[in-house]
Queue: 4 jobs
Job 1
Amino acid sequence: MKRYMNKWVLLGLKVIIALVWLACLWSQTFAAPILSEAMAGLYSSQVAMRWPYLIMGILFLVCVEIAFAAVWRLLSLSGSGTVFTAKAMPCVNWVLGCAAIATALTVLVSLCFLISGWHDATMPAMDYYTIALVLGVAVSPKSDSCC
């Protein structure tokens, strides 16, 4: 069987995907609960939003993990030279679907924060606008092509 991609490149990419997947798993278990609790404790308007933020954060990380599993499959297909066949379409659809869901979750978190933090006297205006700006940049469309 002819190899269509260098096996060391494929191995390196799969190692990177495995590390990102493990980082997402660690974030779901430890970082997301800690960050949602810290946000709830920092500002009084965000106390009620601790659990919604935690759930949306974990769902976002699940989307990333599913997308990387599909990318793993695409890398396996590229090693055998069948990446540009109908076999790859379900994987591509999974990646696109996960990206769409993750974007919707980011928009939902942005809206929740904008509404819940709007009239909070304990939150400095600079914090509110900075967080709103970062969330807005996260969902803004990126255009890298000229045409």
Job 2
Amino acid sequence: MDIVRSSARGADRQTFLDAQLKSVVERAAETGLHLLFPTAAMHVRPDGDSMTLLIGPEVPKAWLLADFVLRELAIALHDVNRRADPEHRLQVRAALDHGETTVNAPHLGGPAVTTTARLVDAEPLREFVEQHPAQDLALIISDRFYQDVVTSGVRGLDRLVFDRVEVAVKDFQHVGWLFKPGVSPERRVA
């Protein structure tokens, strides 16, 4: 995850938004993850205005996307922003992938960590943020996650609310799937 325009308007605002992101993740973990999966490992690597989360394999991937990210994280973001003035509103770009990872705290590594780092910087995700300034959460998922999880339709996941996008960041070229909330009923018929 990465905070949108975190360094704009000074260091005090940036540290405030960093703390808000931490509280959003903690609240989402408390209200969802830890209640249903109390033994699930969760590693958090804060890095200023960004954060990397690793969540253990005992948490179903469909639940992670549908319930943790698209529900609990979105609710926590909304609640924080409901009380914030426009200058201190927290807007987040997020990416999701799955796969083998390595934890050597505070370091986290593996292909999924690299993929999400590149996806969160993807131009299509940045464009989505610019075109939808009222959206608290902008999300892109890897092609692997889309194919393995979203296409199954488990937990109400709908493949039609994701648009396929080409991602080119540094030497990384990948297909990603951009989450488009509020898809029109006409498109859902497709």
Job 3
Amino acid sequence: MTNTPAPLAPAAPSDFSAAPAAPSDFSAAPVLTRAATAETASDPSSVMTLLADCGTDGSTITSYRSTFAAGAVGAPAHFHTRASELFFVIGGSLQVLVDEEVQTLSEGDFLLVPPHTPHAFAAAPGATADVLFVFTPGMPRFDYLRLLGRVMRGEADPQEIKDSSELYDNHYVDSPVWRAALATAV
């Protein structure tokens, strides 16, 4: 006697009428950013290539690519209240904090950090990193990235970053776990 699985019941038809309707004023346009003409923002240890900035270029997301020098510190522990942040490692290795866990992402790794989740990142010890970042839903953030570069170069007061936390949805937190990870990387 053989065990023959019972046939599966046919799936119920989908009821798309229950799905929320798209906003009537939504009008996204294709966004093309050419590598040769993309704006860059930089600080002494990284270069950010600005790709799509929600609300300023017709995009519904915000995205940029960062290349980090070996040992470069990316961002201190922080969280976002309105957006998820996606990380895709194009090359090298990125050390990340997610909640209270530190991991190393390698080429090809993908990470999604949901809203309200503390996270931080830096080039992994002894490594460079090339990372694509995407925020969804997007919000205008390129001015924040430009400000970061100015602060890192000593051209702007760090207080400007603190004062802009609500505007750019970047809320910094203390993380002893992240501080310890950075201290052992030196």
Job 4
Amino acid sequence: MGDTRDQEFMCPVAHAARDVGHARRCVDALLAHWHMSPEVVGDALLLVSELVTNAVSHALPPAVLRVTSRRGILRIEVTDGGPVDEPRTAGLHDEHGRGMCIVTAVATQHGTVVHSGGVTHWAELHHLWATPSPAP
């Protein structure tokens, strides 16, 4: 099993599409350092992509990405300044608008918290399958 200590990572997300890739690269390196299994990393990166894209595309700045690992649960949160427009449902042939459906399919649990500073979308994965830490 990987490192089971409580761990946390935070980074601001600039309000541009290119920051989705930057957020993914940061979390990929972070989860490798935390010794997460490739399966958990793949799911986590998909969640990061969808949550950060949602903030950049549909919400007001500022946005902050936060990743925590506590007691076998990996939590990914993106807090933004709140919605720019009303959420809509993706049509059959739309190329966009399915991000939260993907989050629902991949995450163990997920939710949204509305607060005075904006909105936090979060998703969790159980990472009990973390790979062993390398021998010292």
